[in-house]
# Entry
Amino acid sequence: MLAAIVWGLVQGLTEFLPISSSGHLVIVPAYLEKLGFDIAPPSLGVSAVLHLGTLAAVLIYFRDDILKALRLRTDPEGRKIALLVIVGSVPALIGFPLRDSLDTFQDTVSNVGFALVATGLVLLIGQRVAIGMRRLTDGRLSDAVWVGLAQALALIPGISRSGMTITAGGARGFEPTEAVRYSFLLGIPAVAGAGLLSLPELVDSGEFGLEMIVAMVMAAISGYVAIRWVFAAVRGSGLTPFAIYCLAVGALTAVIF
# Structure
């Protein structure tokens, strides 16, 4: 049960903070093992199902935007949001054939450390380009393609999905909080797809039980807190503190492991 609680907290907090949830689900157990705790990292399948907990958080937080998108036939703003999310989600489909390779990548903890360093560098760049003034409803299909390609990079454990997409949104001229908004809305299809595809495998293997339910609840609660935290951060200090964190933790992980 301790592992489930740790996985849920780590997943929820790091899914929306631009510091890579998939990376932290690898390195946190590795550091805890150094401290004498026997908590193994979850498989990519378990990690994907944990995303269903954070999916609940984003559905609740962005319920107004989601309702608008569902009324796309009669709501022009909702139609634009739905179109940007659908087009931006297409590049992530390239990741499904690579699941086995990505699982192997995360077996080496230092790989995740180097990927975190890369995330930190991208966030530093993102802080410099986050000066746009465009609203999400001003978005074009070309914006969705570029932000979607950035999201596809985050299939690599240690590369932050929110970090890549927020940075890409800023580079395309979106106002910082609008880049965050688009990032989280864009994550809904990818997170739901990965979680729902992996769920039958866990049920068949007997891995989906009380512990997984506890982990998903923890992920939902901590994820909601993290969403509020990111919005507060971009209005204040920006992405720089997250960049410094990724650079420091990534470098330390690459050296130790």
Observations:
- Residues 2-256 form one domain.
